[in-house]
Amino acid sequence: MKALPGTGMPSSNSQKSAPDRISALPDDLLLHVMYFLTMQEAVQTCLLSRRWQNLWSSLMWLNFDAAKFSSMRTYRKFVNNALLRRSSLPEPVPLDAFWIYAVCDNSDDFLGYSDIHPWIRHAINSKAWAVGIMKHSGPKPLSMEGYPFPFTSVYLRLLSLCHCSIDDWFAQNLSSCFPMLDDLDLMSCAIHITMFSSTKSKSLTITSTQTEKDFPIEFQYLAIDMPNLVSLRLEEIPRRNIHLVDVSSVKMASIYSHSLLGILRFSAVFSALFQMPPT
InterPro entries under this entry (predicted)? Predict the structure, then answer.
């Protein structure tokens, strides 16, 4: 065996290549490792070898975080290309969960709903049971008006929306378009409806709502009619009076109001529900 001068190491001609033991691992184990990577890192594994070329696209949880990108433009391009790649595979690849974090500290740009709508459709068409727009920044809440209702699915069980406009069109489709929906989480949304009604949903969370100064008077009341609801978390909605029509199955409730009157009203309602004497 010849050594390289001055190194004591064998020359490349005689050195045997080490076996690629990582690539020899089963897909399930490699995908489990990818779960702990960012989406950029997971996609970049396609450059390692032919063995890795399409492996990342079999991930069942997709988490696209704009904070990992230098600009919203590069984030938008990355998500579009990644989902286009998944869509072009010979056989459809199902999803479990699909999350969008559309806030980039390094950019003044923001995503419109025209950007997000095809991403949501991809997740729904991939039979995802959990879909969420977890973070979004922009001058106005995302409006779905003018687009086909994006969440029609018999698989969807958890839906989280941030900085979206929730209108009667959305509320009317709540039960008919996703009949298996258990959990609805609305964060920093503009609630432009008069009633939430569902016979299926088991968890409802409404936090940090947005209300315009010239809020229409017809929206001063918000009724909640969800007889199978088990968990209810509400933060006070400015200039709205909450009317609990039927929440008779609620076991866990967290309700916050700035006004003492609001606290007493909710306390009385839940004391009656649980057959407890009011404090």
Answer: F-box-like_dom_sf (IPR036047), F-box_AtFBL13-like (IPR053781), F-box_dom (IPR001810), F-box_SCFL_complex_component (IPR053197)
Identity at 182, one-letter amino acid code: D
Q: What is the pLDDT of residue 214?
A: 56
The packing angle between helices 72-87 and 113-125, to 10°, is: 30
What's the pLDDT score for residue 42?
94
Do residues 197 and 174 lie in contact, with contact meaning Cβ atoms separated by under 8 Å? yes
Tokens of residue 150, six digits: 């994006």
In a 3-state reduction of DSSP, which class is residue 71? Answer: coil
pLDDT confidence of residue 275:
43
β-bridge partners, 25: none
- Element (H or E) spanning 136, and its range? strand 130-136
Sites in the chain below the pLDDT cut of 70: 1-18, 211-218, 257-279
Q: What is the DSSP letter of 90?
A: S
The closest alpha carbon to 68, from 111, 37, 95, belongs to 37
Write the burial class of residue 103 (CB in 10 Å: 0-12 exposed, 13-18 middle, 19+ buried): buried
Q: Are residues 161 and 151 in contact, defined by beta-carbon separation less than 8 angstroms?
A: no
Tokens 């919203």 — which residue? Answer: 72
